[in-house]
Design a protein that fits this description.
There is one protein chain. The protein is mainly beta. The protein contains three helices and 36 strands. The protein starts with a helix and ends with a strand.
Length: 665
């Protein structure tokens, strides 16, 4: 599969200006520029990935999430950072793509699940904060991120299309084409994406080893005989390469193949409201080496040239039924299963010419794991303004681990894991506000990487599952000129898996608490003031230390002006210093590097709605070209041809970008 900028540009440019007799409605393209997505329902944030984003539009899933209050991203280079929610990362944050949960292949987290996401290929991104749902699989101690597509049934034969082109500093170029052909009975949807960038420079003009290139193609075919029935088959293919500034190897292959089938049936009877069944297959093939994307390899004198080739195969199955037990009570019952197989092969040589070919070496299996879960989630209207939402979940997890080079068994694990939550929600009379308080509990087994960092590949059963018990409470306000939310949480995590220097792991107990707030106030007809705040405090109770990898508090303030087809604004980000650190400790995602200084950045943006089908947006990020790094970041690595390594991987300097969005509906 191969994409070029010219091919994508030609395909996208043709879409919005073609005439079609079956156009059903005007496009919904608006002049919205998303700077800080808001919580509109208790603990749930829904964002439109096709709307213009500030700062620079995202090239992967993690960089898209960082605009949501409570999220941070651990930077490694130009792409594929690790998302962090309320200080928790890795397998503590469930990530689903079209309902399918899968994991990357790299033990060094080159490829978290969000690395295989181009956000604009999806219709919405749903975030559930905290252990306040049981529908999305095991392990959501931090929360859930779901990238979703929703192809509406056609009322008459027609075509829908969306496209965008973006260009920016350092050779950044993105393109998206999303086209759906359909009738009331069937549809075919295809979208392709391309994103690339050269090495970026930090605020001091130092080049960062960070170039990347990624492509994806997704196809969905559906049968919709009526408004209540859907049968869909899908296929996905993506490929990428990326240079990394934080390690001695780069990612030269990130290949994903995915297939899925989904069936939905709604309004079957008063009791049986909905049936959902979904089966998925995902295969990740990842190659990393120390010579393809850099001028000189980093390795030992005897074996300076090295490559590793892990892969992961995931089979997933989900099924649920929604029952209307009464006019006031809805119960969803479901089950899910996930099978994972991970293998590895590697090669090395004193000379590049003598490196063994990729296909000449056999793969060695190092993991087989199965997670099977059942759950029930209930919503009960207590009265007109009050409701209870509750859920229970049980998972059975088993894993066998092997030494990839010999095939010898290297330990096993078998766990029964329980979770659940209870939340009360109250709608205020005569006020556009909802208050809530919820208590949730989730359990998570050690993931493959945590197991292999336990005392250097020894018996894996000695690490106990994590257990998070968390209280969430808050207020959501959806008024006319003022919208906003305020949320707080208090968490006790027993047997938190703490990693030291990325080679040993142990269980500790931890206490966390924090808050998030967001507000948008339209104080005049053309003016809106926006703000978002996030704070988390975390302690390692066992060692009487701060819990490592805790982000500092952060405030965002934005001001928007809208007049007719024009929108303009500014977004300032104020990040505090962080001196609560535990150097060398953290998780498989990263460890604390030391104290960090605070910083302030400013972004400016504008948007022009050309017509109902087209809009142009542009912006400048890091206006003052500041040199800075996030507190939670990977350490800079020494790479020949680049300036001396930094303590952290610095963020990009001043970045200019422009983007054209087009739509046909």
């Amino acid at each position: 599969m191969s994409f070029t900028r010219a091919t994508l540009a030609a395909a996208i440019a043709a879409l919005p200006f073609a005439t079609h007799a079956a156009d059903e409605a005007d496009t919904t393209l608006g002049a919205v520029v998303v700077t800080a997505p808001q919580m509109r329902d208790p603990l749930v944030v829904v964002n439109d990935p096709k709307a213009p984003q500030v700062p620079v539009p995202a090239s992967d899933g993690a960089s898209f999430l960082k605009n949501i209050p409570g999220f941070n991203v651990i930077r490694k280079a130009g792409t594929d950072g690790d998302p962090v929610l309320r200080g928790l990362a890795g397998s503590r944050l469930n990530v689903l793509l079209d309902g399918a949960e899968f994991h990357g292949g790299c033990g060094g987290r080159m490829d978290p699940p969000t690395a295989y996401v181009f956000p604009e290929a999806y219709d919405r991104v749903v975030v559930v904060k905290g252990p306040q749902s049981v529908r999305y699989g095991n392990g959501n101690l931090a929360g859930v991120v779901s990238f979703e597509r929703d192809t509406k049934r056609f009322a008459a034969p027609g075509v829908r299309a969306f496209g965008s082109l973006m260009a920016g500093s350092w050779g950044r170029a993105d393109g998206v084409a999303d086209v759906t052909f359909g009738t009331p009975n069937v549809y075919l949807r295809a979208n392709g994406t391309h994103s690339e960038s050269d090495d970026y420079e930090d605020g001091s003009g130092r080049k960062v080893h960070s170039a990347f290139k990624r492509n994806s193609l997704n196809i969905q075919g559906g049968w919709t005989p009526d408004d209540n029935t859907l049968l869909e088959i899908s296929a996905a293919r993506s490929e990428a390469e990326a240079a990394y500034a934080d390690r001695p190897m780069d990612g030269t292959v990130f290949d994903r193949e995915g297939y899925g089938v989904k069936f939905e049936k709604k309004r079957i009877s008063e009791l049986l409201r909905k049936i959902d069944v979904q089966a998925d297959y995902n295969y990740i093939d990842h190659v990393m080496d120390n010579y393809s994307l850099r001028s000189k390899p980093m390795g030992s004198a005897a074996m300076p040239y090295r490559w590793n080739n892990p892969d992961r195969e995931t089979h997933g199955l989900r099924a649920s039924v929604e029952l209307g037990l009464s006019a006031a009570t809805v119960l969803t019952l479901g089950a899910d299963r996930q099978d994972n197989t991970h293998t590895l092969r590697a090669g090395s040589s004193a000379t590049r010419a003598a490196i063994p070919a990729l296909g000449s070496l056999a793969r060695g299996k190092d993991l087989e794991a199965v997670t099977t879960g059942i759950y029930g989630e209930l919503t009960h209207e207590l009265a007109k303004a009050d409701r209870l939402v509750a859920g229970l979940r049980h998972d059975r997890y088993s894993a066998d681990r092997y030494v990839a080079t010999s095939g010898a068994r290297n330990g096993s694990a078998s766990e029964n894991l329980d979770g659940g939550f209870l939340r009360w929600e109250h709608d205020f009379a005569n006020q556009p506000a909802t208050a809530y308080i919820g208590l949730g509990h989730a359990q998570r087994p050690m993931d493959h990487w945590e197991a292999t960092t336990y005392n250097g590949l020894t018996a894996t059963s000695k690490l106990d599952p994590e257990k998070n018990t968390q209280l969430d409470l808050g207020l959501v306000w959806n008024g006319g000129d003022i919208t906003g939310s305020l949320s707080g949480y208090y968490s006790k995590i027993d047997d938190y898996v703490l990693t030291r220097n990325n080679n040993t792991s142990s269980n500790v107990d931890a206490t966390r608490y924090g808050m998030e707030a967001d507000v948008a106030w339209r104080f005049a007809r053309q003016w809106t003031l926006r703000g978002a705040y996030a704070y988390v405090h975390a302690d390692n109770d066992t060692m009487d230390k701060p819990l490592a990898q805790t982000p500092p508090q952060e405030l965002r303030l934005g001001l928007d002006w809208q007049g007719g087809a024009w929108t303009a604004g500014a977004l300032a980000r104020f990040v505090d210093s962080q001196d609560r650190v535990h150097v060398g400790y953290g998780s498989v995602v990263g460890q604390d590097l030391g104290k960090s200084d605070g910083f302030t950045t400013l972004a400016l943006y504008g948007n022009y709605r050309i017509n109902k089908r087209a809009q142009l947006s542009a912006g400048i990020d890091n206006v003052f070209d500041r040199t800075y790094a996030e507190h939670i970041s990977r350490a800079g690595s020494t790479i020949l041809g680049y300036d001396i390594a930094t303590t952290r991987v610095n963020e990009p300097g001043r970045f200019l970008w422009a983007k054209l969005n087009l739509a046909l509906d």
